[in-house]
Each structure stands twice: as structure tokens, then as C-alpha cells.
Queue: 4 jobs
Job 1
Amino acid sequence: MKPGKPVATALSSAVICLAAFAVNAQTYPSKPIRTIVPYSVGTPPDIVTRLVADKMTAGLGQPVVVENRPGATGTVGLSEFARQPSDGYTLYNMLLPVSVAPALYPNLQLDFRKIMEPVGQFTWYYNVLVVHPEVKATTVKELVELLKAGQANYSFASGGNGTPAHLSGELFKLQAGVKATHVPYNQFPQGIADLVAGRIQFMFLTSSVSVPLIQSGKLRAMASTGPERPAALPAIPTMVEEGYKDFVVRGWDGLVVRAGTSPAIVERLNAELAKAVGTPEIRARFASLGVDPVSGSPAQFGELINAEADRWSRVVRDAAIKAD
């Protein structure tokens, strides 16, 4: 009988662990849930996360509190997230720039693929190529001709390295064969202010901000980076329509928890996230921001994260992009 004791002990331990998971899932959540947003207050990721967190609070019966931890392409917040236990009480807004961070920071010690478990995606959004009205171009083709002429040193703005605005600009330079100086802004509103003032010539600006500036005549729209023309700007072509193959750049947001979190808790969070995104209030608010609501499984979100990391890492390498 002695040889069987270790097996029995192992089985007992497994049963105890499964029972603990079940109890935790049944009582979850029993306290407030913290959601780390790796960008500052008032930025698009912050706005959409707060909207969703408010709706999830009602469904979960506990406050879902948003905490901003900006810096270093989302890795400041990621470092804080990595220090938390795998109990489902700390969420992280995983978005496109964070998936690119390892390519931008080769010495980064954190491997986001190992420390997180996907919960679900909840947004898609696109950028619009806009120029200051004084730029002597009304189409993408004319802008490329200006850049190739080299008569002026044109600059494009972004909200930081690895953001969709930055990646769109670098992809544009690669595909069009032009030069332009990237100017990353730590304060997103300042970059927009400089663009409107003419100190920056163009930008791939997020739809939620670009549409009102285009409609007021402060900026001129040339193309969108979405897979189809945006509903708010039906006369504006896509970059693909303008002849730029595979030029579909969409930002996205989703929630993740620490790796090792109970599958039952992940399933509960995914269900509550989908419920929140499906409410008429969220759908209407997202529409006003030029944001598309999304819901899907944890596995689908995991596949997106990996695909985007691989795609943009190649762009970072081909364009020799460095963290400024």
C-alpha cells in the first residue's frame, strides 16, 4: 500500500485545489475590482474603459475602479499589473501599443504573453489621415508628391511610440517611400493642438477626435485606416482604396487578468464584459466617439493580441523604429 500513498496524496491535493477554485468562483467578486489603464486620464483608452467599467460594476455587484498608470508605451502599467496575484481582482486594459512594446524595448524584462490571461476585446477604432489646411494637398497622392519633392521637412504627430497613430505613420512612410519626422507627444492633447496650429503637418488621428475637427474645418481629411469607409465620413476613402495594400490599421482595447486566474472567473468577467458592451447606452456612446463595440471569447482576443504583436513587430524592424 505504501507505493500508492503519494498518488493518493496527489489526487487529494488536486481535489482540494479544484474545490478551492470552485468556491472562489462562486463567491467572486467579494470586493472591488481594480482596472489598470496604461494611459492618462482623458485619452481614448481611458474614456472607453471607464464607460465599460461603470456598466460592469452593475453586473458584478462590486465597484470596478479604473486606475491610470501611464508611461513607456503602457509598460509602466504592465509592470504594476505583473506584481498582482492571479485572483481576478486586477484587470489590465490590453491595447495595441502594449503588444508592440517588446519590439520597441528590446531589454524589456516583461513578457506580456506569459503574465496575462485574455478576458475579451471590447473595441475597434480607426484613424483618419488628416493634414493642416495650409498643407498644399487635398489627396493622399498629392501629399506623397509633396513629401517626395522634399521642399519642406514635414512632421507627423502621435500620442507616443507604438500607438496606432505612430504605426500608421511608419507604415505610410514604408509603403509610399517617403520621409517624414515622427514627433511623439507625452500629452496627447498637445499633439493635437500643435497639429491644429500648423506646427505639425499631418497625423493619423483617432476617429473620436478627428471627426469634429474635420467638420469644423480645422483639419482636412484624406483617408481612413479602417477596412471600410467610416459612417461619420462616408466621402473619405480608405488607404486601401488609395492604393496602399494591406493598409488597415485599427486600434483596439480589451481586458486581461493575470495568468493562472481561475477559468470560472475569466468566464464570468467575459460574460459581464459582453453584457456591458451590448447595452444600448454603451453602443450609442461608442458610436458618438467613432468606436465600434466588440465582444468575443477569451481565445479570440488572445489570437488578436498575438497576431498584432507579430505584425507590428515586423513593421518596427523594417522601419528601424526606436523608442524615443
Job 2
Amino acid sequence: MKQTFLILIFIYLSMFLKAQSIEAYRVFTSNGEVAEMDHLLGATDTAQVVLFGELHNNPIAHWAQIEVLKYLHQNRKQVVLGMEMLETDNQLIVDEYIAGHYDARRFEEAARLWPNYSTDYKPLVDYARAHQMRVVASNIPRRYANMVSKEGFDVLDELSEEALLYIAPLPVVYDASLPGYQKMLTMMQGGPMGKEANANFPKAQAIKDATMAHFILINLPSDGAFLHLNGTYHSDNYEGIGWYLDTYQPTVKTLTIATRKQSDIHILEEQNLQVADFILVVDEDVTNSY
């Protein structure tokens, strides 16, 4: 009887420990070594810019972004939050909301917000508002990116001086040979548009990257850090925004974070090595936010 009792305890204990070992995510360094979230947070101590590449519908990534923002707020003198999800011509609206001039309902009515703003980005913006952090709308107005996707960079020369205030300075430096832009073009040519997909599609991505980099740099705090939230494709492999930051201001110290989903989070898959300084790997069974 005693032996049976001990066996049952052992079984229950094993089941408990197994349940306790279930993880929703893991953090890895660029070379695939397992890291802790504290390690990632500590690495931001010397960064001027933190590019957090997210999967837009991933709740673990959005939770981690909040943790990074809180850590920076607690450990750096100045913190600025920048967001791909906010467009540069909405900066006045953002400033007024952060300053407390009107409530969230009016802000959300006036700004062109993403459908998942309330679940995924509002907590970050409201944290910044509560602590009077500057929030930078960094992305090019989508109407201008759409123009570039159809007609290329030259179409921007037709815009007014006022419109050009919302875009990276022209002419835009562009390297069509960068693997990320090459991959984008290849994917589009293999998609519904087929051969109709042309070289202007990666240019639309590039004008977004260039504009976000430009607005990061002109809002870079003199003694602190700039946390920028963007789709992971915009900063993977140290390309995109990071490439433009390095082009515009080579001395800027940038830390990159990428987000990936894997069926097995205990080892970093080969294709995810070296995509960023830290890789947040989320179990593919984690439910999307939309």
C-alpha cells in the first residue's frame, strides 16, 4: 500500500513538473544560444535605438514590447516610443493626445489607427501618455507609399513642400540588391500578380524604411533610448530600417529584436539564426490577436 502511494505521488509530481515546463516562448541570441528576457532587457542599456520587429498579430510580442518599454523607462533618462503603426502626418494628433488635451475616444476617431490598435498598441501608447513620453508617428502616409508602389520614387518629386515634410529627404538612397528587397520582389512575382509585379514594389517598402529611420534619428533623445515598433520584416537581417539608420548616421548604436513562430521553441531553427541580436521565438500554438 505504501509503495503504491509513493508511486502515485511520483506520477503526480512528474505530471506537475511536466506541466510546469510548458513554455509559450523562448529568447535566443543571434547565434542560437538560449537567453533570458532579463538578458535581452539588459542589452538595451547601451543602445540608442531598439528596433523591435514584431509579428503584428502576436500577443507575446506585444507583451514583450511593454516589458521593454517599462524597463527603458525605469533605467534610461529619456525614452521615446516610435511606431510604424502611426503615420507621420498624424504627429500633431498624437502629441495632443499624449499631452492630455482630449480623451482616447477622440484620439481614436481622429487618427488612422490599425484595426488591432485597441488590443495590441493602445497599452503602449497609454503607458507613454501616463508617463509623458514622446510618441513618434514614424511611418510614411500610406497614400505616398502606394504612389511609389505604382510609379517609383520619381513620383514623389510631384508632391508639395508640405507633403515632403512627412517623408525621408529626397532623393532616397536605395539598394535594390539587398536580400530583403530581392526576396519581396520574388515573392510578389510568384503571387497573384505574377510577372506584373515590378521593381516598384520593394521601393514602396524602402520608402517606408527610409522614412521610419529618418524620423527615428530626428527624434533621437540626447541622453536615452528610442524604442521603435515595426513589423519584423522591416528590421530583419539588419536590413530595412537598420540599413537606413546606418546609412544616415553610421555611429548610432542599434539593438535589433526579431519575432518568429516555431513548432519547437527549444532550439532556434537554422533559417532564424543571425536575423537579429535577439530572436523572440513563440510557440506556433499561441493564439493570434486577430
Job 3
Amino acid sequence: MTEQSTMKKVNLKWVMYLLKMAGFLGLLYGTYLTGQMLLGVPSAQWRIIGSGLIATLLCVLVALILSLLWTVPVGVAIGSNIRLTSKLQPLMQIVASVPATALFPIIAIIFISLPGGLNMAAVLLMLLGTQWYLLFNIIAGATAIPQDLKDAATMLQLDRLTRWRTLILPSIFPYIITGAITSAGGAWNASIIAEYIQFGGKTFSINGLGALISEATANGDYPLLLAATLTMILTVVIINVAIWRRMYHIAEEKYHFD
């Protein structure tokens, strides 16, 4: 190895070291600024953030439950019929490709004059934006059920309820969890648009974390924007770790085909 190449390696190590140090100092300074901004958020706003978090969490939960109520039976019906799958799945993919946010102004016009209308519109937008993740995963799960298990259920003359309890639901459970994780994440994102709208020169909003983020953005209230955004991120991470990851492990360990 020549002396010149050795010097180049030493210089490269120093450059990498300086870049790492600069990155660390930048991260440290950003953390300091973040802490300063969060300390500037009044306690009254933290209480509003807390109530908004609960409200948005309930909307996400309602949207997820409503999605499951129709995607599970429809997804199983489509996935269990190869001919139906080949005909309907391309059509559903086209419908699913339409952004739900493009339909939201129409949804808002319909619901905004009704009591609690914006709340219903927010849930509907979350539903439109997240239901397809569940549906396509459930179709895939129903399609993947081994034919020999279906034949065994037929030979045993299992009634519909027993067939769902012992074969269908355990078989599609991992796919439901996968779809639900993605759907819940999409619902949280949709809340930012669904809970705060400006229409006809007026502003309409409901109690929710998404509305706080949109309102803080519109008003240039950066401390509130940072606090609300970090609260949403932290909540999603906690839910993913405490609930979805455990459910995913259960699905992998108990409900899979060897």
C-alpha cells in the first residue's frame, strides 16, 4: 500500500468522523429547540391536545370497525370464488385508486348541515381511505385457504357458523391484522384532512388531533403544531408496539399454514 493511498484513507476517516460529529451536534441542537418549543405550549393547549387525541382515536376505531364489518364477509365471498375474484378484483383496484380526499368536498357538502355532520364525514373519509387495505388482504387470505381444509369442512358437514369459527376466521386472521395495521395508519393520516376544512369562505372543524394539526398549520402556531404532531406520532408508535405487534405475533404463531 502506497503512502498516498494511506493518507487518503486517513483523510476519509477524519471526514466521516467530522460528518458524524456534525450530525450529532445538529441532532442535539434540534432536540434542544424541540424541547424549548414544547415548553412554550401552555397547559390549556395540552389539555386540548389530550381531548383531541381521544376524539381522533375514537374516530379511527369506528372507521376500522365499520371497515371490518363489510370487508370480512365480502372479502371472504370474493376470495373463495376464483371466478368472482378474477372479475371483481380489477374493478375494485380501479375504484380503490381514486383518492378518498378527492371525494371529501362532496361528502362535506352532504353532511355538513346535519347534526354532527362533520364527525360523520370525518369517519366516512377515514373509511373510504382505509377499507381497501383490509379488503384486498382479506381476499388474499381467503384465496390462500388450502383446498383440502375446505374439503374436510365439507365432509364433516360443518354448519356455516362452525366453518367460520374453526376454518375461515383463523385462516384469514393474519391477513386481517396486516390490513388493519395499514388501515389504522391511513385513518390517522386522513384525520388531518377530515377534521378541519375550509369551505365557502368558512372554516369547519371538530374536536380532534388532526384538526389541531391543520389549525396550527393554518395559523402558523409552530409550538402547537409540533406538540400535536409528536403526540400523534407517539400514539401511533405505542399502539403499534403494544397492540398490533402482539397481534401480529399471535397471528404468526397460532394461525399459519405449515
Job 4
Amino acid sequence: MSGAARTFGAITIANALPTGIGCAAGIALPVDALVTLTRDGARRSPTLEIPRDCHTAVVEESLKVGLARFFPGTGTVARLSLRSEVPVARGLKSSSAVSTAILLAVARAAGHSPTPLEVGLRSAEVGRRAGVSATGALDDAMAGLEPGFIMTDNVRGEIVRRAKVDPEWGVVLYVPRESHPPSPNLLSAFSGERIAGERCVRAALDGDWARAMRLNSEIVERTMGYSYGALRDRLESHGAIASGVSGLGPTLAAVGPTDRLSELGQLLPSDEARKLIVPFTRIPAVGGVEA
């Protein structure tokens, strides 16, 4: 039995660390997972066959959580194939995208069709168990499963708000080579930003995505030591609708009209960082059964 799934990375509108409420929007950087499940009566505990080049705590926990929920029993052998276009530990939700893709692939291989929220909640469980997320990042997981702006209460495990993204908008990404530390290491640092975080959440609840991204970026820049203020001002003076640090960075995301994205990309620093132009996701994550 084989199941395949494709989910996506995302950009941050409001980081959940200060308040527990986060907002993100999916972008077309895909993760593809293929999981094959068999039973081996000679084995009692599950056997996970994970390629060495993608064997991480998130990958292993995703398979374990998926098997426990969708394919329980003894003697399970799970074989994984994984491909991701999401830069790792750069603030573009690579862990959430990987976990949701694996979870959905396991579910489809086992003959289940879980709701996006169920997959998102399992992904949040994976993030906490693997030690890569302090909040579980339900907003990130849901944004990689469904198109649009998605706002969640990560403490209660609930969706707070959904909104469509303007079809004429796209994203320019500035992705430095440095990576960020796991969010549990930074929870105490962000706890002092609760008041500013509440202003950011209120802007997102009101649908003022530009203000939410700006307020969120100011919080993250203060906490992480980034200096993107001048670059954000320059991007917005040349037509960017909104811009800000995504996740814990160091990636900076600028939202703009699709016909202005190339121009905005030319404003990014001339250095070794990757510069990407990507659309927002327009379709939900997909999963299916392979013969």
C-alpha cells in the first residue's frame, strides 16, 4: 500500500511565539512524500526505512505519529521517499511542510482521508515532540495544507480566521544562507513581546496584512538581531504591499503585485543569499493512493 502527498511551505504574517496566536500564508514551494506500508509478522515494533539524506527528528516523528494514528498494529514496515523545495531552518516552514506531507501520505497509504485540521494538529504534535517548535506551529501547518491567510490559536488548536489572498499578489523571498535556532530556545525571549504581539494579532484579525507583517517583523528583528528596516522601506516605496521577516528568519518576504515582483527582486542585496519569486498557493494540499 502506497500513499503520496504534496504540501507546501509558507510565509509568516504573525508569529505565534509572543501570544500563542499565529497567522501564515502558503507559498508554492512544495514537499512531496511517498510512503509505502507493509506488514511483517516477524517484527513486533515498526520499522522505518528513511533515506539517510532526509533522516531527521521531524521525519522520524512524523512517521511514528502517522503510523500510530492511521496504521496501528505490530510488524509495520514504512518506507519513505521525500523531496522538498523548502529551504531548511530559514523561516519558510520546512518542518511543518515535511511533517504534513508525511502524515498525509501515511494516511492515504492506510486508506484514510483526514481533514486538513486533523493533519495540522498531528503536525503540531510532531513539532513539539521533535523539539523544533515551541507552539506546535499549527498556523504554519495549516497554511501549507490550505491556500489563503490562515490564523490559528496554537494553544487551543483552533482555526481563528481564514481569508483569501488576492489572486494578483505574489511573493519575493530573500533567503540568506544562515539558519535559525529551534523556536523552543527562543520562547523566553519572545515572551517579553506580548503587548506588541497582541497589536500584530489584532491587525491580522482585522485583515490588515501589511500592518501585521510590519509589526511582526519589528518584533522578530528586535529579538533576533536582524536589521531589515531600511530594506523593507525600500521595497514598500517601490510597490511592495507588505514585507517582513518570515518565521524566525533570516528570510525576508515581500508581498507585491505579480507584475512588480521582478522589479522588487532587483532591490534585494547583491550577496550570496537566494532570491526567489514564488506565487501563493492556489490549491489545497493533495494526497492519493498509488498502485
